[in-house]
Amino acid sequence: MSRRAVILAGGMGTRLRPYTVVLPKPLMPIGDYPILEVIIRQLISGGFQHITLAVNHQAELIRAFFQDGDKWGVRIDYSLEDEPLGTMGPLRLIKDLPENFLVMNGDILTDLNYADFHDAHVRDGNIFTISSKTRQHRIDYGVLDTGEAGLLTGFREKPTAEYKVSMGVYMVSSTAVEHIPQGGAYGFDQLMLDLLAAGKPATVRDFAGYWLDIGRPDDYALAIEQFESMRSRFLNG
Q1: Which residues form the Nucleotidyl transferase domain (predicted)?
Q2: How confident is the model at residue 12 (pLDDT cuts 50, 70, 90)?
Q3: Distance in angstroms (rounded) separating the CA atoms of residues 172 and 169
Q4: Backbone angles phi and psi of 185, in degrees to 5
Q5: Where do the H-state alpha helices sit in 46-91?
């Protein structure tokens, strides 16, 4: 099966400043490699033959590093935004997308099997598939439950809330792309709401493995710390 991927690599990386003043976020190093190279190597291992990098901020540095992908034995090309287009807007600029393709952020460290994720979406005929991770958030306060007249009905000391979050990895069908307007910024949140309004909801596929978004300094430091000890989970060889 031919597999195609689009990596969103045009963000400003504002949460990682001052690091991203010099380097675009996708070129931030994790171990011996920029995070974007780790992703590209993973996609190649998963049988993806064609990768498009949607670029904007410091695009020339990303293009200089990856060029046409020949070094890795994969076809890499570029889609350049002249204005910020959000998460989903860049897809309208790419004219040769297949019926189903993977879209993901360029700053994710995960051991998700991209080939399985791709093929399950195609097999099930989904319009849009979201890879999700269950996260826990500890509330640092005592939580008061109240009823009528403000009377206390319960008390929870620093409870933990569980919720599903998007991992920033998606499978997209050409039908979903038709809902993305031409021109202007258009995000993942807008597309999800528009698909819901159209009666074509996305499918959420839970993932139990490792996932870290390196967009925040604390998470980036954790990724650097864990990458070497867990290297075989992310890279073959």
Answers
A1: 5-226
A2: low
A3: 10
A4: -75, 140
A5: 59-66
- Is the preceding peptide bond at 18 cis, omega within 30 degrees of 0? yes
Q: Which two tokens stand for residue 164?
A: 């599903």
- pLDDT 10s digits, 186-222: 999 999 999 999 999 999 999 999 999 887 788 888 8
Q: What is the rounded CA–CA span in Å between residue 216 and residue 37?
A: 19
- What is the identity of the amino acid at 35? I
| Cα angle for residues 14, 68, 75 (degrees, 5° grid) | 105
Q: How many CA atoms lie within 13 A of 205 on its CB side?
A: 21
- Measure the CA–CA gap between 44 and 225, rounded to whole angstroms: 25
Residues 8 and 105: beta-carbon distance below 8 Å = yes
Answer whether 117's CB lies under 8 Å from 1's CB: no
Write the DSSP assignment of 166-231 as a string of letters: EEEEEEEEHHHHTTSPSSS---HHHHHHHHHHTT-PPEEEE--S-EEETTSHHHHHHHHHHHTTTH
Q: Do the beta carbons of residue 128 and residue 60 sit within 8 Å?
A: no
Predicted model pTM? 0.88
